[in-house]
Structures are given as structure tokens and as C-alpha cells.
Amino acid sequence: MTTVIGLVAAFLSTISFLPQAIKVVTTKKTDGISLVMYAIFTMGVLLWALYGFMTMQLPVIIANVITLVFAVIILFYTWQNVMKEKRRTK
Amino acid sequence: MTTVIGLVAAFLSTISFLPQAIKVVTTKKTDGISLVMYAIFTMGVLLWALYGFMTMQLPVIIANVITLVFAVIILFYTWQNVMKEKRRTK
């Protein structure tokens, strides 16, 4: 039972970033999104993936590599819009 | 070394939600934020906290209870704005 809860938790917390990645790619809107959050979060997920490699835990590697892909997409679009906004207000 | 990487990963992926929570509370802006993401993510984090209790892993409990607080704040503001938008466009 515990393992099932852990797997479902890992699945939900990983897949949850897919709708956010789709939303920023399709709408290009990132107004409310915190660039600082995704910068820190991406580093955290990168370290989780590294931790998974070092401890040879495949679920940790897979979950965090997938989350990393979504996080980088969201980070890229958010960063792009922040840069545009800065150039506009110079 | 591995433990340190795991702890830093846990710290970063937990604390990363703080700037997003602060941003939605101060700006009330949630345009780019995916309501679906935070609904799924909040369930995932809730299950992670439950997993931590069931396996008596204090770091898992602490990290996910903290993340849960931030996620619920972000989810609440995003949901509130989505409801406002729906009423406005009726």
C-alpha cells in the first residue's frame, strides 16, 4: 500500500508540470509565473536527478528527468518574456 | 556527499515555491499559471506527505508539508481568479 502511495505521489507531482508547460507554449503567457521559482526549482530537480543516478534509484531518475524537461520549458518561456519586458521598459 | 546532494535538492525544490506564493499574494496576478497543474501538484504533494508519515521519514514529511502550504496558497489564488474570469465572461 505504501509503495502504491509513493508511486502515485511521484506520478502526480511529475505529470503536474505538463499542463503548465503546455499552457506557456500555447498561450505564451507567463505574467503570473515566478522566474525565481522556476530557476530554483530547475536546480533542485537537476540535483534530484543527480541524486537518483548516484544512488541508482531508477524511479527517482525517471521522475526528475521528466520534470526537468517540463521545468526547463517553463523556465525558458518565462525568462524570454521577462527579457522582452525589460527591453520594452528601457 | 550523496546525502548532501539529496538534502540540497529537497531544500531547493521545496523553497522554490515560496517566491511563487509571494508573487501571487502580492500581485494577485495568476494569468500564466495553470490551475490544472496546481490541482494535480497539490494532490501529489499531499500523497508525498502521507507517504512520509507511513514510512516515518521526517525529511519527506517536513519538505512536503512546507511545499503543500505554498501549493495551496498558489492554488487558491489561481482558482479565485479563474472563478472571477468565468463570472465576468458569463
TrEMBL record, chains A, B:
Keywords: Membrane, Sugar transport, Transmembrane, Transmembrane helix, Transport. It is found in: Membrane. It comes from the Bacteria. Its main location: membrane. The keyword GTP-binding does not apply. It is a multi-pass membrane protein. It comes from Fusibacter ferrireducens. This is SemiSWEET family sugar transporter. InterPro entries: PQ-loop_rpt, SemiSWEET. The chain crosses the membrane at residues 33-51, 58-79.
